[in-house]
Amino acid sequence: MNYKALAERLLPGEYPELSYYETLYPPRDLEKGAEVTRLAPSPTGFIHLGNLFAAIANERIAHQSGGILYLRIEDTDLKRKVDGAVEAVKNALRYFDIKFDEGAEIGGDETYAPWYQRQRAEIYRAFVKHLIEEGRAYPCFCTEEELSALREEQTAKKEITGYYGKYAKCRNLTEEEIYKNLDEGKPFVIRLKSMGNPENKHKFHDEIKGDITVIENDQDVVILKSDGIPTYHFAHAIDDHFMRTTLVIRGEEWLASLPIHIELFETLGFERPRYGHNCSLMKQDGSSRRKLSKRKDPELSLEFYRKEGYFARAVKVYMLTLLNSNFEEWYRKNPEAPLESFKFSAGKMSKSGTLFDLDKLNDISKDELSKLSAEEMFDFLKTWADEYDTDAQKGYFADREKMLKVLTLCMGIGGKKRRKDFTTASQAMKFIQFFFERTPQEDEYRVDGATKRAVLTAFLKTFDPADDGQTWFAKVKEAAAANGFAPEMKDYKANPEAYKGSVADVAEILRIATTGRANTPDLCTIQQILGEKETRARLEAQL
Q1: Quick one: fold of 449-541?
Q2: Domain limits of the chain?
Q3: Fewest Cβ atoms nearer than 10 Å: which of 268, 276, 355, 480?
Q4: Distance (Å, whole) CA 494 – CA 496
Q5: What is the pLDDT of residue 346?
Q6: How far is it, in rounded angstroms, from Cα 287 to Cα 297?
């Protein structure tokens, strides 16, 4: 068969010599040991926790080695493309402080651009044409119906599904048959002519899982689709080579494709990057574990964390505890250290499924938020509220001085111990809502209506927002004594039958009347922040 003539018929026109691309995309000028890693999502509009998991690993490995992290958009499948998806990817990863050095919509060293695969079509076609000329690729005219029937036949026979061996019927078409199909205008794809034998097995070193056994590929995979755009398999091999990627950290679902990728690199004559396949994120579901699901688990989407207002550093800290087995101990010893000072290692990533625990993330989030100053918390909440909250709640930030007082109290700043009441921005905004508007009563009074009114009336007679904490509490004791409650806890404990309750019960009545809740930070300070007019109005409303 005249392969050169066939290549010209299938892909007509002049293409540069392949050596041209080696010159166009030279090796990067980096120090020895510097890693070049990438994140390469599809523009589907859905960026998930697994993307962040891989992004943190790739970012740490690249930057701690003095290397490069770039963003490549794998848009070979137009059917899945969603408008605005790339911006969504960038925004989500920016929120979690993933710093790219170059890439799509980021810029950087233009030497290795473009970073959209569809914009690199000429490169792929040049290599496909070369493979056809070498007899290592061929046109396949099988229809979707024929391929579907083939899969059904293989499934019925309990054989491996795919296009290989005796099932690769277009692999051995004669020259006459090929040109007849072309003359009839039949659509075609280009397939790799595999030289592998699945009986052959060899060791492969995975940067995360260690040494694993890999069989040779025998699938004649599609490398160029009928629209002239390559498949992911083919495009990623060429792009990783010419973008000079040294290490690929990706999900373990790609392990099944590893034999194909190994053969592609060998066929193209490229030095293969090292691969590390990270484990899947799992969720406890009853007594068993399962992979996080897009359909079942809203927490899989990164947008969930942004909408809820998770503190980005907290999510990153938790991800690092999952990514590296020694991070948690290091962080306990170095709680104030920059996360970048932790020595990340692909070899310490989990080799099997990792349990994602939202409760543990919430605990870490409380710890991280409790470390912020009032000013830092103000900025964090305002940034979130400006994007996600209601107009009314955005208005909470109009009086900066009041909001700082609220946050100082609620975070326990200046006290003996910092409070850890805040988990997320959305929860924090709900927590502080009563300072800015009257909210529905959450907790019930534990006294009858007459007693409640008597206590509130007694307290209102003496209330003065200028009182310090000691004076304020003395007046609460007076209201307690006047209404049959023990003003001192020791008296109540010594003879509880003699009283309706203790001063603590009186404080709870005042607390619920003021805030609608039985548990809050210091009530005296709350009433001072609310001011005399609003405090009196709330207490009187309960009469």
Answers
A1: Arc Repressor Mutant, subunit A (1.10.10)
A2: 3-15+121-278, 283-369, 372-435, 449-541
A3: 355
A4: 6
A5: 94
A6: 17
Contacting residues for 65 by C-beta, under 8 A, at least 6 apart = 33, 34, 35
User: How high is the pLDDT of residue 442?
Assistant: 96
Asked if 460 contacts 536 with a C-beta cutoff of 8 angstroms, the reply is yes
Number of other CB atoms surrounding residue 69 within 10 Å: 23
Q: What's the predicted TM-score (pTM) here?
A: 0.91
CB 48 within 8 A of CB 298: no
Q: Which CATH architecture has domain 283-369?
A: Orthogonal Bundle (1.10)
**CA distance readout (Å), 442 to 178, 511, 517:** 76, 11, 6
Euclidean distance between CA atoms 368 and 384, whole angstroms:
16
Helix (H, G, I), strand (E, B) or coil at 219: strand
The beta strand positions in 133-273, using DSSP E, are 137-140, 189-192, 201-206, 210-215, 222-224, 247-251
Cite the beta strand spans of 45-101 per DSSP E: 68-71
> Token pair 């909470």 is at which residue?
396
Convert the pLDDT of each residue in 151-190 to its tens digit.
999 999 999 999 999 999 999 999 999 999 999 999 999 9
Q: Is-contact 211 201, C-beta < 8 A?
A: no
